[in-house]
Structures are given as C-alpha cells and as structure tokens.
C-alpha cells in the first residue's frame, strides 16, 4: 500500500456549483474525500437583528429575501407565527388562496432545483431550461396576483393583500392541464439519462437514523425513508382537508432525492386541483377585515412552522407588547440541512461533492441570513 | 400520534428527574425607547430546566418519550432580567406538536453542556448561539464562529450590542 499525503482544498466561495457564496473545506486523499467542513457567513446581514427594529408588517417583505426562490412559503410561515401570537383569524377563502400559492411555489422550487442539479452533473442547460420554462409560467401567475414575480410580499396578517384577479383561474387551469406532461417529460429526462443514473445512484447516502439525528427536514429527510411532512404531522392552514400522499425514498441517495421531488410535484398538483374544487364554496373574503396590520401582539412567545419546499421553516417570535418583535428567530431549513454534508460526502469522490450539495437544494440567502 | 402538552412534560420531568425542573419566574421585558412606551412581563408555559441538567432532560426526551427530533435551538436576550434564555424544541417523528425545554443562563460567561455529541443536528444551532450570543457549549467538537469572522469581537444579537456606528471605522480616522 502506497502512503499518500492528504491535501486540503477549497471548493468555493466563488464557484458556479456552490449555489451562492459558499465554501467547502475539503480534505482529500487522492480523489477520495476524507473530511468536509462547510464554511459560510459570506452573505450574513444579521437578518434577525434587522427584523427586531422593524415593525411586524415591515418584516413581511423582508422574509421574501430569506429563501428568494420561495417567497410565498416564507410569507406563510411568518404570517402564521404572527397570527398565532396576536390571535388573528384567517377567513377560509384566504386560507385556500394561501395554500394554492404555496403549492405552486413547491412545484416551482422543485422544477428549478432539479434543473440546477442536472446542471451540476454536467448535462448543461437543457434540463435546466425545461425547469425554468415551467417556472416562468408560475411566476407569471404570481405576478398577476401579487404584482411581483420573485419578491411577492403577497401575504398579510389575516389573509392576503388582494383577491385573485379574474383571469387567474382560467390561466391556472391551463397550467394544470399542461403540468402532468411537463412532470412526465422531466422525469423521463432524468430517469432515462445514463449520466444522471451513474452520478446519482448510491451517491451521498444518508441513512434513516442519521437523517433524524442530523435534524434534516423536507425532501432530504423523506428520501431517507422517514415519512415526515409538517403538512401531515401537524396540519396547519387547511391542509387537513386535502387528500395527498407523502412520497418517501428507500436508500437515501441523490437519486431518491430526485424521485421524491418529482413525486412531490405530482402531489402538489393534486392539492391544487382540490383547491380549485373547494375554493368557490369557501367562506369569507381574501382578508379578515378586522385584522389590524399594525399589530401589537400581547406579551409572550410563539413558534410556528410550515413545510416549505426545502423543509421545515419555523419562526420563533417573542413579543414585548409593542409594534416590533422583541425576538425574531428563523429556523431555516437549508441551514440545518447542510449539517450532515460532511458525513454525506465522506468516502465519495471530489466530483460527487457538487452533486450531493445540489441534491440538498440550498439557498444562501436563507443559510447565511 | 403523541399529543403531550407542556404541562404533561413538566409533570413527567418532575417525577422522573427530581430537581431538574425549575419554577419559572416572570420575564420582564422593557423594550428600547424606539419600540414604544409599553413593557410587560410573562410567565413561560414550557418546562424550565436547570442548565446543568439540560443534557439529562434532553436524553430523557429522546430515549423515554421518543422525541428524537431536535428541531431548533433559539436564544433570547432578556436584558432587564439579566439572563439569556435558550429554547430547545423537540418533535416526535410520528407527528404532533412540539415540546420545548428552556434553560436560563446569566449574561456573564454563559455556559451549557453541548448536545452535539448526542445530536449531531445541534451542531450549527450551537455554533450560531455561540457566535451571536456568546454562549459556550461545553463538549462541542468544533465551537467556532459560524457567521461572523473569527476575529470579530462582541456578540451582535445581544440587546446591548450597539446598533449604530462602525467600530472598525472611527477613532483613529
């Protein structure tokens, strides 16, 4: 056996495959990884501190900037937390509109995440373009409802800022008609892709017990075989009224994470179809007219969480009875999902690191806060 | 699906870990002047644990109650009371609401036993608390600043950290 010298190399912070300004300090033995330490904080702006000098409503657009891919899901978690703290009720119709937006966000996020993942594997641009094309259609819908494509700032305490425009539903139905073909097409591109199978099967395995010990959430946790979804485990909003499945993987490798995301898109489509059915009978308007936007919640603390497309997104708020939160803490899913990266990469090759990182699906705006 | 409430947890911990549960005293909150004139106090409903026994209580949650999933560690600086409160939030993988353990620490040299050797998922949470609040987690394998750079002085999320000015620009310029 030849004795080799271990080498430390930096991947990032400026690297096209690190999904932002993110550094991995990798120790390699030849091509094999023996240790990996994620290093971040390059985008740190002390989001939580800034949020404590803003009023509750001023923080609503600021949550958009956490996970800028899924602004609607961030809004939802924050709105639920403040409503719980201040005891604001949400009309039924507003709940349906919220869930509709969040489920569209899930489709959009997974389409983008899978596209970027294939990009990282070296299949340049084609699949990414497929995902982005679908994402554009959803962003157009968001724009018609909220006025913005990415930083939607659509939610308010007690509902959403305005009702759906008249042409929203016909456009949504057109989108839904085209969606199964898109998902099938994406799946075919992935499943029948020899490069992808070789790069993802058996790579970056995270066993079930380790996944729980590492507190990972979302598709990464479910790919490891744990059927844990906040929408089922602790139903919030109107999720208890919908019929949907929680897809789980068996091995916990990169390939399982891809399949779980594809199946989640199908389940989101199922939920959206049920929303379209139930929305016309929903009571109330798009917002609770009695809800004050300049809230002054009573003194106390609260934790509320949602299943964001990347995992469990939670807000811990402490109120001092004034118009500004005394403490505002974000439990960011991408941040915690990075914890097992070292263990997931150990023993694999350097080229697998970007694939494993891509399969976790991180957004640095949320990791660094 | 388990549905333990905070009161149940307090009772069980009081029975099985005698002396670990403390009586929560009301927390006084006086907001900074920019926050408005109001101030108040509240008593937490969650189980308040003796800081030196937090590891024991967490292992009880995991091994006896089956709350294996450590979701969040949040720190709040209660400046008026002169203490930092750490909130550990646990979930059961079968679902149901969370259970929280709280521990109160002095603001001078706060220290807690680390959960990272037992819950690798606590790693980044504890590094974040160390970085932004200056809490030392005894037994943590790699307790370094996570967001701020290593040479940074002070703990930016504490309530008495200056919110204006830049200490790196000033005096000598």
Describe the structure.
The complex is a heterodimer of chains A (369) and B (173). Chain A has helices at residues 47-53, 59-64, 71-86, 92-121, 126-146, 168-191, 194-200, 208-213, 219-223, 230-233, 254-278, 333-337, 341-345, 350-360, 364-368; strands at residues 7-11, 23-29, 32-39, 155-156, 159-160, 300-308, 311-319, 325-331. Chain A has 15 helices and eight strands. Chain A starts with 6 loop residues before the first strand and ends with a helix. Helix content of chain A is 48%, strand content 13%. In chain B, the strands form three sheets. A five-stranded mixed beta sheet of chain B has the order 1-4-7-6-5. In chain B, strands 2-3 form a two-stranded antiparallel sheet. Chain B has a domain at 6-115: NADH:ubiquinone oxidoreductase Nqo5 subunit (Beta Polymerase, domain 2), CATH 3.30.460.80. Classes of the chains: A alpha+beta (369), B alpha/beta (173). The interface between A and B is large, with 48 and 49 residues.
Summarize the structure.
In chain A, 48% of the residues lie in helices and 13% in strands.
List the secondary-structure elements of chain B in sequence, H or E: HEEEEHEEEEHE
Given as residue ranges, the uncertain stretches of chain A (5+ residues, pLDDT < 50) are none
Mean of all residue-level pLDDT scores of chain B: 82
**Spatial arrangement of strands, main beta sheet of chain A:** 1-2-3
């Amino acid at each position: 056996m030849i004795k080799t010298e271990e080498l430390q190399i930096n991947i990032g912070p400026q690297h096209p495959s690190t999904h932002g300004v993110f550094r991995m300090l990798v120790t390699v033995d030849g091509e094999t990884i023996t240790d990996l330490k994620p290093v971040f904080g390059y985008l740190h702006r002390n989001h939580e501190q800034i949020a404590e000098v803003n009023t509750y409503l001023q923080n609503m657009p600021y949550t958009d900037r956490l996970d800028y891919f899924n602004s609607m899901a961030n809004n939802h978690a924050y709105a639920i937390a403040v409503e719980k703290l201040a005891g604001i009720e949400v009309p039924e119709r507003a709940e349906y509109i919220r869930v509709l937006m969040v489920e569209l966000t899930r489709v959009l996020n997974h389409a983008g995440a899978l596209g970027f993942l294939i990009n990282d594997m070296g299949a340049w641009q084609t699949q990414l373009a497929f995902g982005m094309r679908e994402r554009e259609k959803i962003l157009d819908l968001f724009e018609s409802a909220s006025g913005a494509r990415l930083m939607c700032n659509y939610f308010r305490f007690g509902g959403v800022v305005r009702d759906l425009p008249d042409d929203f539903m016909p456009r949504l139905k057109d989108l839904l008609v085209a969606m199964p073909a898109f998902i099938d097409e994406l799946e075919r591109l992935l499943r029948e892709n020899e490069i992808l199978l070789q790069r993802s099967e058996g790579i970056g395995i995270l066993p079930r017990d380790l996944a729980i010990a590492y507190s990972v959430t979302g598709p990464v946790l479910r790919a490891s075989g744990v059927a844990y979804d906040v929408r089922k485990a602790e139903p919030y909003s109107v999720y208890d009224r919908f019929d949907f499945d929680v897809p789980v993987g068996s091995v916990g490798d990169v390939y399982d994470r891809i399949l779980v995301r594809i199946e989640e898109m199908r389940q989101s489509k199922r939920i959206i179809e049920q929303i379209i059915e139930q929305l016309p009978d929903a009571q109330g308007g798009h917002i609770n007219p009695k809800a004050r936007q300049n809230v002054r919640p009573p003194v106390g603390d609260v934790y509320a969480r949602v299943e964001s497309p990347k995992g469990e997104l939670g807000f811990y708020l402490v109120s001092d009875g004034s118009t500004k939160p005394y403490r505002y803490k974000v439990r960011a899913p991408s941040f915690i999902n990075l914890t097992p990266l070292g263990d997931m990469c150990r023993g694999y090759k350097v080229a697998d690191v970007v694939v494993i990182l891509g399969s976790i699906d991180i957004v640095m705006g949320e990791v660094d806060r | 699906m388990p549905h333990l409430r905070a009161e149940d947890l307090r009772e069980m911990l009081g029975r099985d870990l005698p002396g670990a549960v403390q009586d929560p005293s009301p927390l006084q909150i006086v907001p900074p002047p920019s926050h408005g004139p109001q101030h108040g106090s509240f008593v937490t409903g969650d189980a308040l644990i003796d800081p030196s026994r937090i590891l024991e209580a967490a292992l009880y949650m995991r091994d006896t109650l089956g709350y294996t999933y450590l979701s969040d560690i949040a720190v709040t600086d209660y400046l008026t009371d002169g203490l930092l409160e750490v909130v550990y939030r646990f979930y059961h993988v079968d679902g149901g609401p969370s259970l929280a353990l709280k521990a109160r620490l002095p603001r001078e040299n706060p220290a807690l036993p680390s959960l990272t050797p037992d819950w690798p998922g606590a790693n980044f949470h504890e590094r974040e608390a160390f970085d932004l609040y200056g809490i030392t987690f005894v037994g943590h394998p790699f307790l370094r600043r996570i967001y701020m750079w290593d040479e940074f002085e002070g703990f930016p999320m504490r309530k008495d950290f200056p919110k204006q000015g830049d200490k790196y620009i000033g005096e000598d310029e």
